[in-house]
Amino acid sequence: MITLEDVKKNDELTQLILSSQKQLNALGYTEHSIRHMSIVSQRAGELLQTLDYPEERIELAKIAGYMHDIGNCINRVDHAHTGAILAYQILKDIGNHDEQTGTAVSDISAALILADKSDAHRSRVVNQNISTFDKHDKVNYAVTDSKFIIDKENRKVILDLTIDTKISPVLDYFEIFMDRTMMSKYAAKYLGIWFELVINGTRLL
């Protein structure tokens, strides 16, 4: 069975990840490099592990999380599909994670969606000039703390965010991330659990 460690040792994959971030840096887009991929990988694996999925599925979720954004090295537009093509031999049974077209089609894709969409945080903002922030930069920068909580006993996953409302009102989060929030809700449903969104201590979903 291929493991996440096997994937991490692949030089071609490493170059795809680094190239992807160079492209996004040039566009001033949020961080999608090894930091993000590692977080998504860890959270996707942890979610399936907590829900008692087989080790093979857990490992595949970790791999999917680590590789899911490599399509950015070609183009940000449709990166979910180009990434799947680039990694076809490994990811041929995994669905995509793009909120414009994607939906959970397996336990692995559901875990990937929940893990990927949970990573909102100011450390992802590449642009260092606050005066030129677009809406995505502003909302991400306002997120000072992001917790991904898996509650096995109550069969739910909680995205608990702390947002600095002096930087961005909570309403702006929903304006930018409503599609992602609903995608997370449906992914959780696929796994037979609930998705909850908590912002500044208030449950909103």
- Portion in strands: 5-15%
Helix content: 40-55%
Give the low-confidence spans. Answer: none
Quaternary structure of the protein: single chain
For the sheet with most strands, the description reads: 4 strands, mixed
Work out the helix count: 9
Secondary structure blueprint with pairings:
Blueprint: H1 4-8, H2 11-27, H3 34-50, H4 55-67, H5 79-86, H6 88-91, H7 107-117, H8 135-142, E1 143-151, E2 156-163, H9 170-190, E3 194-199, E4 202-203
Helix pairs in contact: 3-4, 3-7, 4-7, 7-9
Question: What is this structure, in a nutshell?
Answer:
The chain is of the alpha+beta class. It contains 9 helices and 4 strands. A hairpin with a 2-residue loop joins strand 3 and strand 4.
Can you offer a commentary on this structure?
The chain is built from 9 helices and 4 strands, in the order ααααααααββαββ. It has helices spanning 4-8, 11-27, 34-50, 55-67, 79-86, 88-91, 107-117, 135-142, 170-190, and strands at residues 143-151, 156-163, 194-199, 202-203. α3 (34-50) runs antiparallel to α4 and α7 (107-117) packs antiparallel against α9 (170-190).
